[in-house]
Amino acid sequence: MAQDTTVQRIAFWSIFIGMTVLALKYGAYHVTGSVALYSDALESIVNVVAAMAAWWAIRVSYKPADQNHPFGHHKAEYFSAVLEGVLIVVAALLILREVWIAWETPRNLAQPWLGLAINGGASIINAFWASLLISRGRKHKSPALLADGKHIMTDVVTSAGVFAGLVGAVLTGWTILDPILAIVVALNILWQGWNVIGNSVQGLMDMGVATEETMRIRDVISANAGGALEVHDLKTRIAGRVTFIEFHLVVDASMSVGDAHIICDRIENALMQNIPDASVVIHVEPDDEAKLPIGTAAIPFA
Q1: Could you state, in chain order, the average pLDDT of each consecutive group of 10 residues for the chain (302 residues)?
Q2: CATH node for 211-289
Q3: How far from 263 is each of 252, 282, 286, 301, CA to CA, in Å?
Q4: Which sign does the torsion angle of CA 153, 159, 161, 163 carry?
Q5: CA atoms of 104 and 7, how far apart (whole Å)
Q6: Where do the DSSP E strands lie in the chain?
Q7: What predicted TM-score, i.e. pTM, was given to this entire model?
Q8: In sequence order, what DSSP letters do the residues of 202-215 get, joined into one string?
Q9: N or C of the chain: less Cβ packing under 10 Å?
Q10: Cα 136 off chain centre by
């Protein structure tokens, strides 16, 4: 319950942080007329909408399992991340449209230093918040927070490039740098949007855990499967913050149901201690279902 409250609170505050940064960046564009700063502000609109979607998705993901969703609502966060990726792509296309207009009608920057100062302040806020979202997203295994944090961090890098480029444009008088920078921003966030969508689709496709995590799961099972003969058909999948683990456990055919259940409980408890939010399913089989010769190893994996 504490984790539920923490993640939802972070997602809720992300909306207000996004609105603050949007107001600052739009103010920077308003005082300068820079198409590069306009593109930066447009991406912040995406951040606000994405933060709202993430907050909604996180609230849904923490709902308990029900009759229609017996495995829970954990995947709701992936839909938020996909939406964010789509919005990023839309923002990039709108930026390219503005670039085309600026290219045909070059603009002189008004009050560039004031605009850059405002934009720089917004970027500092974004950098702090993106770092927090990424760290908390990893800690709580929240795809929505992680996607939001990575997107905002890309926004920070983009803003730094825009800042440096516009300083050069002001000092040299090369106004052409303004639309060129906006093109770089658009291409950068297009790439980021593609990555966000790709990662979220993998989650919706029941992607298994990483190889290192699989080896850790195998080690935990082996260390706590005393009394069993074999473990095989280990399968994993990730749904938001939950890791689903299932496998077949071979025991002596003469073993009682109670004794087999004790082994299963021991393995399940160990996995849940080592893998946060693990959901474990163990299928017990008699020794004639073994896939390797009995005695080959203590707990061989097939």
Answers
A1: 71 89 88 78 79 82 80 74 74 71 65 84 90 86 76 77 74 72 74 73 74 91 91 86 89 93 95 88 90 61 56
A2: 3.30.70.1350
A3: 12, 10, 14, 17
A4: negative
A5: 46
A6: 230-239, 242-251, 278-286
A7: 0.61
A8: HHHTTPPPPHHHHH
A9: N
A10: 11
pLDDT at res. 219: 92
Longest Cα separation, the chain: 87
Extract the tokens encoding 253: 């055919």
The pLDDT, as a whole number, for residue 217 is: 93
Q: How far is residue 142's CA from residue 76's CA, in Å, rounded to a whole number?
A: 10
CATH class of 2-204: mainly alpha
Evaluate whether 2-204 and 211-289 have a shared fold. no
Measuring CA to CA, which residue among 269, 268, 300, 274 is closest to residue 287?
300
Q: The tokens 């005695």 sit on which residue?
A: 295
pLDDT given at position 150: 77
CB 77 within 8 A of CB 144: yes
Residue with token string 């946060």: 276
Question: What are residue 281's DSSP bridge partners?
Answer: 246
